[in-house]
Amino acid sequence: MSYKSLVRNNVRKAFILIGDLGTTVTFKRFTKNEFDFSTGETTQTTIEEIQKVLIVDTKNKERNALEKFIYVNTEFFPDLKFSESVMINNIEWKIGKVIEHNEYLTQFHIFRS
Questions:
Q1: Which of 56, 57, 60 is nearest to 105 (CA)?
Q2: In the chain, what are the domain boundaries?
């Protein structure tokens, strides 16, 4: 067993073992705009992906905004750049900057005002 597969298996196990500490969220991805020549309107296609994530709450005293950090298993969610927002308990959060992204784990910042 290689080192990469050992780490990947341990990350997979960790996300299974977090149980109730993990939260199921919906990532919204906006994929493409289409123009309808008959109506003159544009439509945007949205794809939703459901993933189990670990959320860490933070407090920011400098700004009046709510912020959180999310950890996602990179194996099941490899590409974050096309995601616009995250739905947590029917509340939409905007995706901020990616803090860490490697083969195993992705940590990024979300916020709402």
A1: 56
A2: 3-112
CB 25 within 8 A of CB 50: yes
Give yes or no for a contact between 89 and 68, defined as CB atoms under 8 angstroms apart. no
pLDDT tens-digit series, residues 45-67:
666 777 788 888 766 666 556 88
Domain 3-112 = CATH 2.40.10: yes
Model confidence, pTM: 0.70
